[in-house]
Amino acid sequence: MTLPTTAAPKPAAPRVNPLQRIWLREIGMERLWMRPAPAAARPVVVPQVPVSKPVSAPEPAPVMAAAEAAPVHVAPSVAPSTAPAPAVPVAAAGSPPAVGAAVASTRANGRPGIPASILNRTGPPPRPAPKAAEDEAAEAPRIPVAEAVKNANLDELREQVVACTACGLCDGRRHAVFGQGATPTRWLVVGEAPGEQEDRQGHPFVGRSGQLLDAMLAAVGMSRDADVFITNVIKCRPPGNRNPKPEEIAACSPYLMRQIALLKPERILVLGRFAAQTLLGTDATIGSLRGRVHSLKTDEGAEIPVIVSYHPAYLLRSPSEKARAWQDLKLASRKA
Ligand code: URA
Q1: Helix (H, G, I), strand (E, B), or coil: what is residue 215?
Q2: How many CB atoms lie within 10 A of CB 25?
Q3: pLDDT at 62 (0 to 100)
């Protein structure tokens, strides 16, 4: 499949709302506004075929923070998602699997991830379970996540995530954060993991990073209600916002892969080093991953364009990088 090339669309007449203008003014590009364009594609697993070069636009001097520049996770080469799910966690310490890799979801204590009582439920998602029902669910036989998600629709998948006990992160969470946005969606936006506010509210990107993300999306004519679905690689908050562990990534990955399969986004916008490295199965720096279009191969053989950009939290710390993020958004907005 041939993915977007570097040929730039003709700039369209400026059409900005106040939110867009704030963002554009902030990055000094109010005048360079270009209208976004639609596209099409289908989804599911694996990494990475760089197909286009970085777009050209005024380049600020690189100001990479050490935390953003240095890879932390070493992702192995990607295993196809069609591989049979192993019965126990497969991730080795220090080597998180690419999200596309088939992963197991059995907890370290030997309890696989999702209570059968949740899996076998029909009808709408339930209200938060009273204590007795939670106990009952905890005692029910458990099904590995990779197996459980296979036939789930979006509502069922949400229910599975909310009830998930596939890794230790469930112990400290207030809410598992499934994701939020338009269904059907044009873009899937993938962040790292819920922070404190997201854990409290049960929705992704609701803190300061989320406000910046909303402004960035608005700058290219997108909104979380109408055009994008926002989620994270990890659905539960790691304590103290530490980096997720390989076994947590392995346990959670089937949820993201199923979300991609169900949502069939035209584009995936990956925010930050952790999400990019995990989704693309690489330990490359974000500086080397951004500025071109990658591809995520689906189980059906389709390929979804993947654009990597900086995490909004990083942009809040390093505002000079906002110009590059703007380039990334324009790249993501180009016609396939
Ligand atoms: N950071 C993320 O990566 N995801 C969120 O949902 C919030 C902050």
Answers
A1: helix
A2: 12
A3: 31
Of residues 170 and 37, the one with the higher pLDDT is: 170
The CATH 3.40.470.10 portion of the chain extends over 141-333
Would you say 125 and 155 are in contact if contact means Cβ atoms under 8 Å apart?
yes
Protein residue with its CA nearest to atom 7 in ligand 1: 205
Which helix (H) or strand (E) segment holds residue 268: the answer is strand 267-271
User: For the domain with range 141-333, which CATH number is right: 3.40.1260.10, 3.40.50.450, 2.40.40.10, 3.40.470.10?
Assistant: 3.40.470.10
Q: What is the pTM of this model?
A: 0.69
Task: For 284-315, write each residue's pLDDT tens digit.
Answer: 999 999 999 999 997 767 899 999 999 999 99
CA distance 292 to 289: 7
Which residues have any ligand 1 atom within 6 Å of their CB? 191-195, 198, 204-205, 209, 232, 313
Would you state the structure tokens that stand for residue 173, as one six-digit string? 């969470």
Residue from 169, 228, 232, 277 to probe ligand 1 pocket by mutation (most atoms less than 8 Å from CB):
232
Q: Per DSSP, what are the bridge partners of residue 142? A: 115
Cis peptide leading into residue 14 (ω within 30°) = no
Q: 194: which DSSP letter?
A: -
The first and second tokens of residue 159, run together, are 């229910």
Ligand 1, atom nearest to 209 Cα: 8
